[in-house]
Amino acid sequence: MFIIFGTRGLKHTVKDSPVLTNSCPSCAKGNLVNKLYRRWFTLFFIPTIPLDEIDRFYECDRCSSAYNESIKTILQQSQSEINETQKQANLKFAKALIASMTHMAIIDNDFAPEEEREIMDVMSKFPELKSELTEIYENVKVYGNKNNQVFNYLNEARSQLSSETLINILAQAAVVLLADGSIEKEEENLMKEYLIACGLPKEMYKTLIEKLKLKDMAKLKEEQLN
Fold this sequence. Notes:
Structural class: alpha+beta
Radius of gyration: 18 Å
Low-confidence stretches: none
Distance between the termini: 49 Å
Helix content: 40-55%
Number of domains: 2
Strand content: 15-25%
Number of helices: 8
Organism: Aquimarina addita
Protein name: Zinc-ribbon domain-containing protein
Pfam families: TerB, Zn_ribbon_15
Oligomer: single chain
CATH architecture of the largest domain: Orthogonal Bundle
Shape: globular
């Protein structure tokens, strides 16, 4: 008889932590609920024993935006300071997303037109950052991860964004990997390296793939509706 075991990260609500009512900086109406990622020992893919805590963060119950726990302090600042913090967080998010997305697209030495369109579509959502993101895109497209530039953007994002947001960045970036219908071992290893660069255990790869599948399903549904 084979015994299949391993570890994986699961998200939980911190029940004894107060909810920050109507405090979401993104939608201004949602409540921020304290969440945590905990590593679990799994037996036959079933979580059985809770292990260490990976990260705590706040998640909006309305728009699903995620923030690291420093949001509690940020919310005590003036509105202009909150706006500036959000602006900087958005900048780090966009830079990390375009850098990792472009790197994933070129990792197999076959930069497909479909992959480029995915990247251009994402860049169009940040019109105010067009010049900065275009420069990052061109640099990574030509030089890849030379001088660890992609990992550096992920590390910068790690300093301000929550683990949930970092995983969402990688899940969104990894959409380009599905252009050929599958994720190769080399691409899987790359995503695990990204997780480590974000300060997350490589076991979170399963969580990343689950989010990737959800995003892919949502995109397919949107295409069918249009």
